[in-house]
């Protein structure tokens, strides 16, 4: 028995030593950890990234992956500084998540300069695969063009012809309003005006009153996170729905609906790339995720982080590990391989870095329709991936058109 014990200890020591000798790849989850966007990404995205590493088990494939995290405070200069430190000092190989489009644009520039992979799973601006594209960007989950086109087209076809926007006054909000306005006009609707609300505003009353005064059939919220929650709650307080105006969120998450409550949010239309109750795969993953996220169900951003990190590791596995230090080479490999995971299903990554997968148009249920925790959505329509996202030729990404 003693000989068996000694042999087992020796095997364990050798295994540990071999593990220590494996090349290490580091990925940094950068997002808002405690502020306005912490519920849609935040600590939950870190959980999702670590679950991807556990599920892929890179050590069995000859390399290790470490996940680190930082709070960019929704400030572009802070995000850029973190990215530089990660790449120059901490030997980080890729960055993932990064809500707040202005921060993502800053991090994208640093990632391109340092030739590192940038996996964007929470920022919305479609410019990241358009005029601001780089060969190092992979844009997962959603973008402003896709959300605006899907939601705008559907609402106009249901009779919502005149629109007024309450827009977050920064890059993301401007891009979302721009793309939604184009979709509305292309489908026969018209734009009556907009109100630009400061980012992280606590009081939307003046903007809501302007929207009410416009008498537009549709009041569209081109914002996200806490701004979405506050603006929709205040719109309900001022009775916009009772006066016959339809409320549309151009980017809302299940965490927002949870915070608003079904009584106020019922009837709200929105487009998402993921919902926990879509199929057996999404339900099984959510049952593993929620206990690790303080019981909160996953947003599409957190699901996107899981899927993007999983695909990034598949690309590393397919490359010589020395070449896998080259972020551009890793992204090229990611584009060469079809995407396939339990949350988004099968898809692909285009030349401009846009990940192609289905999107879903939902309507929020009323309180009497919900039968379980987070049972919030009715599926209205599935938009196939090849129709959901902006055509490649319209994006004006210079290298993707060559």
Automatic annotation (TrEMBL):
Q: Name one Pfam family in it.
A: Peripla_BP_6
Q: What biological processes does GO assign it?
A: amino acid transport
Cite the Gene3D superfamilies for this sequence.
3.40.50.2300
Sequence ranges assigned to domain Leucine-binding protein in this UniProt record: 26-365
User: What does the record list as coiled-coil region(s)?
Assistant: none
Keywords from UniProt, A to Z, are: Amino-acid transport, Receptor, Signal, Transport
Q: Name the PANTHER family for this protein.
A: LEUCINE-SPECIFIC-BINDING PROTEIN, PERIPLASMIC BINDING PROTEIN OF ABC TRANSPORTER FOR NATURAL AMINO ACIDS
Family, per the entry?
Answer: Belongs to the leucine-binding protein family.
Identification of the protein by name: Extracellular ligand-binding receptor
Protein's organism: Methylobacterium nodulans (strain LMG 21967 / CNCM I-2342 / ORS 2060)
């Amino acid at each position: 028995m003693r000989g068996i014990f000694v042999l087992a200890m020796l095997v364990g020591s050798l295994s540990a030593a071999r593990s220590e000798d494996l090349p290490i790849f580091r990925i940094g989850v950068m997002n808002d950890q405690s502020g306005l966007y912490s519920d849609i990404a935040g600590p939950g995205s870190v959980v999702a990234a670590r679950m991807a590493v556990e599920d892929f088990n890179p050590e069995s494939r000859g390399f290790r992956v470490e996940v680190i995290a930082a709070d960019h405070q929704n400030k572009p200069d802070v995000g850029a500084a973190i990215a530089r430190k990660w790449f120059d000092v901490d030997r980080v190989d890729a960055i993932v998540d990064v809500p707040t489009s202005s921060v993502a644009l800053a991090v994208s520039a640093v990632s391109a300069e340092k030739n590192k992979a940038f996996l964007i799973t929470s920022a919305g601006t479609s410019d990241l695969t358009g005029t601001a594209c780089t060969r190092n960007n992979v844009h997962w989950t959603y973008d402003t063009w896709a959300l605006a086109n899907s939601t705008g087209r559907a609402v106009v076809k249901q009779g919502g012809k005149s629109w007024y926007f309450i827009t977050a006054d920064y890059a993301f909000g401007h891009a979302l309003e721009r793309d939604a306005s184009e979709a509305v006009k292309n489908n026969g609707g018209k734009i009556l005006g907009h109100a630009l609300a400061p980012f992280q505003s606590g009081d939307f009353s003046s903007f809501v009153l302007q929207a009410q005064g416009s008498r537009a059939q549709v009041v569209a919220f081109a914002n996200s996170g806490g701004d979405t929650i506050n603006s929709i709650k205040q719109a309900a307080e001022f009775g916009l729905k009772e006066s016959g105006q339809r409320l549309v969120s151009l980017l809302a998450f299940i965490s927002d609906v949870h915070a608003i409550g079904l009584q106020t949010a019922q009837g709200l239309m929105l487009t998402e790339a993921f919902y926990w109750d879509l199929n057996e795969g999404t339900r099984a993953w959510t049952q593993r995720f929620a206990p690790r996220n303080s019981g909160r169900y996953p947003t599409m951003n957190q699901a996107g982080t899981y899927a993007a990190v999983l695909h990034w590791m598949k690309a590393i596995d397919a490359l010589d590990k020395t070449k896998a230090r080259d972020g551009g080479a890793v992204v090229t490999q990611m584009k060469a391989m079809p995407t396939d995971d339990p949350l988004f299903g099968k898809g692909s990554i285009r030349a401009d870095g846009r990940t192609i997968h289905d999107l879903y148009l939902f309507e929020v249920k009323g309180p009497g329709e919900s039968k379980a925790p987070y049972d919030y959505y009715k599926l209205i329509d599935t938009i196939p991936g090849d129709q959901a996202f902006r055509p490649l030729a319209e994006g004006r990404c210079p290298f993707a058109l060559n």
